[in-house]
Design goal:
By secondary structure, the chain is an alpha+beta fold. It contains 5 helices and 10 strands. A 5-stranded mixed sheet has the order 3-4-5-7-8. This is Restriction endonuclease.
Length: 250
């Protein structure tokens, strides 16, 4: 990502002819066709996340036996993969973006959010709004983490990009990533993220700690929970009724 393309500019000269990507980049800069990406962390992160998911979708399209579904902007996960290429099971892939610290480059500027703690994560057998299926329907959960250094003088804004792939539980801390929202936070050390050295020794320890955490449950979430539980009970009763009608074997 080099910047935002501007169709017209006072310096525009057409046509533009280039024999390489580097030459094209230089001409776009020279004729003022590139505007800077946003510096605001959330806006820049969104652009990078979309770009990474686009790339993954292109590669999955070229993979025999791979199936995929893109998630919603505020849902979980960012990408669902399945199909024979992945054992016929569903796998959740979430993309995270974090900036290196301004004063301490060995840490992220803020904790990465791993999950929302008071909905689909806390009640993993319920199908929450904004998710494609229940949390426990996924055979695996994987985070793709983009670490970058902010360069305010560059239109691309991003320098020294590093990509880390880890299972969320392996990089989890015992701290929330926000003081106002119900989010699970990752460790801040980039070396620990890279090596998968979180604060838990096993997945069971991670899930036990965070599912017992006293997250706040808003009135809206409580209403959603009541509806989902009721729906689940209705489905169970329906299945029981269907089972009761099956003929008995001799």
């Amino acid at each position: 990502m080099l910047g935002i393309f501007r169709k017209t500019s006072p310096s525009a000269r057409w046509p533009i002819a280039a024999s390489s990507a580097d030459q094209l980049e230089g001409l776009l800069h020279e004729h003022d066709h590139l505007l800077p990406l946003p510096k605001e962390p959330a806006a820049l992160a969104n652009i990078l996340e979309v770009s990474i998911v686009d790339y993954l979708l292109t590669r999955l399209d070229a993979t025999e036996g791979a199936e995929h579904t893109r998630g919603t902007e505020r849902g979980y996960p960012d990408l669902e993969i399945s199909g024979p290429a992945f054992g016929g099971s569903y796998h959740a892939v979430d993309v995270k973006v974090a900036r290196r610290g301004d004063t301490n480059k060995s840490k992220t500027q803020s904790r990465i959010t791993l999950y929302t703690g008071n909905t689909y994560f806390k009640w993993p057998d319920l199908h929450w709004p904004g998710t494609m299926r229940t949390f426990n329907d996924y055979r695996s959960h994987l985070d793709i983490i983009i670490i970058y250094t902010l360069d305010s003088d560059s239109k691309a804004r991003v320098q020294d990009m590093e990509i880390i792939v880890q299972q969320p539980w392996k990089i989890a801390s015992k701290q929330r990533s926000s003081t106002t929202r119900e989010y699970l936070g990752a460790v801040e050390s980039i070396a620990a993220l890279r090596d998968g050295r979180g604060e838990f020794s096993t997945p069971a320890e991670f899930y036990r700690f965070w599912r017992a955490y006293p997250f706040k449950i808003s009135a809206q979430v409580q209403k959603q929970l009541a509806r989902l539980v009721q729906k689940q009970q209705q489905e169970i009763e329906q299945l029981r009724g269907q089972t009761a009608q099956l003929p008995l074997e001799d």
